Amino acid sequence: VRLIVVLAAAWIVLVLSLGAWWITLVIRQARRIGELQSLTGSADSAVAAQWASTRRMVIGESSVFLLLLLAVTALLAWLYWRESRRARGMQAFFASVTHELRTPLTSIRLQAEAIAEGDQRAELARRLLEDSSRLESQIDKTLELARIEGGGPLAEQSVPLRGWLERTLTTIAAAHGGRLELRVQLDDSLPPIQADAAAVQMIMRNLVENSVHHAQLERVQVQVTARAHGDQVILEYRDNGAGTSVQARELGRLFGRGAGSEGSGVGLYLVRALMRRMGGRADFFSAPGAGFRAELRFAASRDEAAA
Amino acid sequence: VSTGAAGSGAQLLVVEDERNVGQTLAERLQGAGYRVTLAESAARARQAWRAQAPQLTLLDVGLPDGNGFDLAGELRAALPQTAIIFLTAHGNPEERVRGLELGADDYLTKPFHFRELLLRIQNCLKRAQDLAEVPGEMRGVVRIGRARVDFERFSAEVAGTHHALTHKECAVLRLLASRVGKAVSRDEILDKAWSADEFPTSRTVDNFIVRLRKLVEPNADEPRVIRSIRGVGYLLTEVIRE
After folding, report:
1. By the CB < 8 Å criterion, does B153 face chain A?
2. Phi, psi dihedrals of residue A24, rounded to the nearest 5°
């Protein structure tokens, strides 16, 4: 950081010195041209026009040069500010991910120690499975974030939601045992969507985990509905959790976390980023006591064969 | 460490919002002979310590309805005798220092070994018990500088305002008071007030002295009650029994 500050200071000094030198040079040249013009006399209009043109050229070139220097300086300052902000965000992210990994690890170690000392309760095995799923999910999210940020490709195809979405959600819900009560209601006439099926699974898993972690309920009710709207399919996800006071536009911000939240600030960001990559859109709504709602707008598939 | 009779029935409060961690910890501590209450939020922790004054509290820093650091301050004010151990996944030095300065007796980073936790619990309970046994000459209220200190209640009154003393503040002040008029070395202060499984430095003692001076000195910039003895440590100049 100290090196960057020294380099930035040196750059500013260089720009200011060059600017001052250039302005002095231009003023001197302009003055000299004026003097030569008065010496040669104004009778010769061709010479006078030549002097005036040279003067304009010197002033114009110097102005462009100075503006370029200032623009590059401003660009460098902006890039530096953006990278600093990103670096702070990454630092916060790694702190969160470390926390998210350490917590299930603590639980796994406590249970493994108990088993090693002779405790053979099935409950310990259930907790071990739950914690290992949580670890797996956190690792998946981190890898998906790296893939999305690196511009990794998506395999978009025609995905029929009816049947497939119900099976996907049932599988995801099974990982949370009895903590989730799921209701899926899809229109019979629902067209397929143009999407990456793996990305849609990741979106659903993140939404469900978000509900389970933040609902502050022993048993969370989740309702998923979908309907056709023009050339789009709107999928609505809703839970009956505690909701949050975080503003809607802040939900889904990378590394954004609510007060007291121990999440990594990645789940909803991934939902929004994946929807955007598939040409769709995700909007989130929540208020204290009013649960959480996500509205996902997919492009309807034009592949009639999949319907 | 024997997990069988280690607990000797001491009452513990575990404040942990991660259900699996909290339940397994509570079960294992019960197996080790402790009486355990589990609270999954700050609100439930408040109810629990009002209902059963715990001798030691294991406190997670991140809670759904509050911050463990703030809760430690409340707990210290409500139950000065209770020992506090922070259990947290945030292991950075700044948070550790913050936790200890807030009056925690120890700070353990997740994931930890259960036997190490048991050892630290035993050490904390032992120190808390030692502090609770106030010798005759220190009982009641004593005046140290501008503060009226009650070692039995872990509290100090300055100009009508009550301050809860942390266990370490109490231990350092009591050690200095027991040798009034004589210099006490930094190493001895570290030895008596900190446990062997912590890693404090002489600077840690200096920070505690700065805080104690703010409490007892009429003018903390020109200390006369707790004097620095160059190259040795600190000397308490006056203790007046009331």
Report:
1. no
2. -60, -45
